[in-house]
Amino acid sequence: YYRSLSVSEMESRITEIKNRLGNKLFIPGHHYQKDEVFQFADVTGDSLQLAQVAAANKDADHIVFCGVHFMAETADMLTTENQTVYLPDMRAGCSMADMANIYQTEEAWSQLQTLFGDTIIPLTYVNSTAAIKAFTGKNGGACVTSSNAKKMVEWAFTQKERLFFLPDQHLGRNTAFDLGIPLEHMAVWNPINNSLEFDGDVEDIKVILWKGHCSVHEGFTLQSVQHIRTMYPDMQIIVHPECSREVVAASDDSGSTKYILDTIENAPKGSSWAIGTEMNLVKRIIKNHPEKTIVSLNENMCACLTMNRIDLPHLLWTLERIENNEVGNVIKVEEDVAIQARLSLSRMLERA
Ligand code: 13P
Ligand code: SF4
């Protein structure tokens, strides 16, 4: 039915419902959302900013999260009992978050405890399930986002000698490397065969990286960098730290979504940039900066497909159900999980 409506009809219905519900409705939108949805967000931001605004909002009864599942779970855990969080399409997950489940994590932890005793602390990228955030909270660790990863890794080393970083090996490796930890002191935990990938004396290990990755950011390769260097020798290359270590090392700069946005915003007129991050965002940066030459680091990349599952029909469907008091795609984390997950989130938010 929604597919039979024209874009302008869906847009005007969404606008009308937003006007009728006023501040009882709140729509946070991640920078990776497509423009058709992004235009309706009350606040836009990266995952850290959206977690902060969700926690700060005390007025809205209905929070329609335009992002992916783990972000909506985080919003649910940081809002009150009386506020309901919705994800317009339940299929909007994150393939990286799906690379670590709680059973694999508990198994890894028990083996790491055997190897390292009480010298290790978990640090979990927010791109993870609520259950893994709870595991992290329970074991004294904290969450991180790409915006505060350095600060949180530094904090973790004030707590314990070693850290277990999950689920993105690249963010963990890039962040630890930037803080001066040599690659030879980093091991990889392979959850497929429950084993530690490391050549050397395990006593030397400072960081254990879960073998997960983002398939969007792994699409930027050394070849992409070399191609840009050949085609546009004067172009600066900036990438997200979910890209591999070799791509980050070959680029000119790297940083979180907010860092990339701020860098391009503050760059001189006429400067030229190749950006290695999600395509909806890169296209929006290109559109918003006609005074700069900007390209994607890999023009063949597509957008994050799960972020793209949130579209106009799903947004309208969700809003109409809310208005008609019908059940929508409610995201509700079980309270026993949420209590422990909030520990890891609040250890991050109080330092963010
Ligand atoms: P940010 O933390 O930069 O918002 O990134 C979220 C994400 O999913 C990156 O791929
Ligand atoms: Fe997950 Fe990667 Fe999509 Fe971010 S871009 S939501 S990490 S799959």
TrEMBL record:
It is found in: Cytoplasm. It comes from the Bacteria. Pathway: Cofactor biosynthesis; NAD(+) biosynthesis; quinolinate from iminoaspartate: step 1/1. One of its GO terms (molecular function) is 4 iron, 4 sulfur cluster binding. One of its GO terms (cellular component) is cytosol. [4Fe-4S] cluster binds at residues 94, 214, 304. InterPro entries: NadA (IPR003473), NadA_sf (IPR036094), Quinolinate_synth_A_type3 (IPR023515). Binds 1 [4Fe-4S] cluster per subunit. The keyword Flavoprotein does not apply. GO terms for biological process: 'de novo' NAD+ biosynthetic process from L-aspartate. Catalyzes the condensation of iminoaspartate with dihydroxyacetone phosphate to form quinolinate. Belongs to the quinolinate synthase family. Type 3 subfamily. This is Quinolinate synthase.
